[in-house]
Write a structure and sequence with these properties.
394 residues, alpha+beta, 4-stranded mixed beta sheet, 4-stranded antiparallel beta sheet, 11 helices, 8 strands, globular, binds flavin-adenine dinucleotide
């Protein structure tokens, strides 16, 4: 990947701004205090927006900044390097916004994009249900038209940030009796209304970042459907394609920073003299190099015979990357626990370092689930990269 002198100048601008403005990284997860940390992250995300550092890749006409692909890569890399707190408006900026830019009506674009760009309205993603996760086409939540509104009934689950979100994009069945991917619609639904109940789910980390969401006669305007009614599957799949973008290289810069920190800890506490720990640290470093090489390769042209692009040209690269990074990060969390030794098993009190690593370890469990589970990614690799027959559905 080649950066031009203009890219280098852009990198300096991003790095300087972050160095001057980024608050300290988010502290460890303290049960009961997750909402405080949310308020701080929201304020920070709004500051990023005010300074023009959100929606970089969106066209300027929609409130974005027309940033080139390279500039977006640079921003994510510098952001990860700076260890600034996690942004909170990611679902609107990276999922719904691009979907509306590509497939929304001009009215929807005018109504919904500016508050996303300004981080004034937060969004959540209402796809998964108790009976529809990996098998998303089993969605059972229904919506029926009533005058000039949709009336929605059903339940979503694992809905990240639903307790903070102002709006949700909901995949719902609008054609009674329809099956699988037919008859679904992609609805934009306001969250703060009597027909919606949000019940937080407590996670291993002690945080409640995701929720159950109950729709009991919830309402939204008839015009708040993206695409045609019944065409929701196509729109939902388009949104998923936006999920795996250039953020991946930034993620890896964050991983590199974490690995560097862990090496330092191992050096300090003597764990680095243990031959097995040394070997695992070396393997982690190699894994990171593999991930970076694969990411750069998959961002460029197909690499020929060894490419994960199948004969039909539909890539398995996002699935390969998902398996690589999620497994790598889980292993890093386990290594961190072993390097900290017995200290990793008790509440660390003031020793925030251990708490933060424990969070990496515990949250790692979720990384092979969200965004498509490990098994589903391997099924995709099997069919798209290896040309194996599709799995039979029972
Ligand atoms: C932290 C986190 C945040 C999330 N945020 C959101 C969100 O904001 N919005 C949203 O809509 N969803 C969200 N999800 C849900 C996520 O998309 C689902 O958990 C995921 O798609 C898996 O679905 P499931 O949990 O129903 O598991 P299931 O689909 O029931 O799978 C259970 C197990 O069976 C395996 N399995 C299932 N089908 C197959 C198959 N065909 N072949 C082989 N193995 C299979 C799976 O890999 C898994 O191990 C989130 C999940 C997590 C963990």
């Amino acid at each position: 990947m080649q950066f031009s002198p203009e890219d280098d100048e852009f990198r300096r601008r991003v790095a300087d701004w972050l160095a001057a403005n980024a608050p300290a990284p988010r502290g460890p997860c303290v049960p009961g205090q997750e909402h405080e940390s949310f308020a701080g992250r929201l304020a920070w995300n709004r500051r990023l927006a005010a300074a023009g550092w959100t929606c970089l890749g969106w066209p300027a006409a929609f409130g974005g900044h027309d940033a080139t692909f390279m500039q977006q890569v640079i921003f994510y890399e510098e952001y990860a390097r700076s260890a600034a707190p996690e942004r909170v408006a990611v679902v609107g900026e990276e999922l719904l916004g691009p979907t509306l830019i590509a497939l929304g009506t001009p009215e929807q674009q005018r109504r919904f994009l500016p508050p996303i760009a300004a981080v004034q309205e937060l969004w959540c993603q209402g796809y998964s249900e108790p009976g529809a996760g990996s098998d998303l086409a089993a969605v059972a939540t229904t919506a029926v038209a009533d005058g000039d509104q949709w009336v929605i009934t059903g339940q979503k689950v694992w809905t990240s940030l639903a307790h903070e979100a102002d709006w949700c994009f909901v995949l719902a069945r609008t054609e009674p009796g329809s099956r699988r991917s037919a008859g679904l619609s992609y609805l934009l639904v306001p969250m703060r209304q009597p027909g919606i109940t949000v019940r937080p789910i407590r996670q291993l980390t002690g945080e409640s970042e995701f929720n159950e969401v109950f729709f009991d006669g919830a309402r939204t305007e008839l015009g708040n459907v993206v695409g045609e009614p019944g065409d929701g599957w196509r729109i939902a799949m388009a949104t998923l394609r936006f999920e795996r973008g250039v953020g991946m290289l930034g993620k890896q810069v964050g991983f590199r920073r974490e690995l560097g920190d862990l090496v330092e800890i191992a050096r300090r506490n003597g764990a680095s003299t243990d031959p097995l720990i040394r070997e695992r640290l070396a393997r982690a470093w190699i894994g990171l190099e593999v991930m970076r090489a694969y990411t750069l390769d998959s961002l460029g042209e197909p690499a020929g015979g060894g490419s994960a692009r199948g004969p039909a040209g539909v890539g398995a690269e996002p699935s390969v990357l998902k398996v690589l990074w999620s497994r790598w990060h889980q292993a890093l969390g386990e290594l961190a626990m072993d390097i900290h030794g017995a200290a990793s098993m008790v509440d660390a009190g003031e020793a925030r370092d251990v708490d933060e690593w424990r969070r990496v370890y515990l949250f790692g469990r979720a990384e092979t689930i969200y965004g498509g589970s490990d098994e589903i990614q391997r099924n995709i690799i099997a069919t798209r990269a290896l040309g194996l027959p599709r799995q039979l559905r029972g």
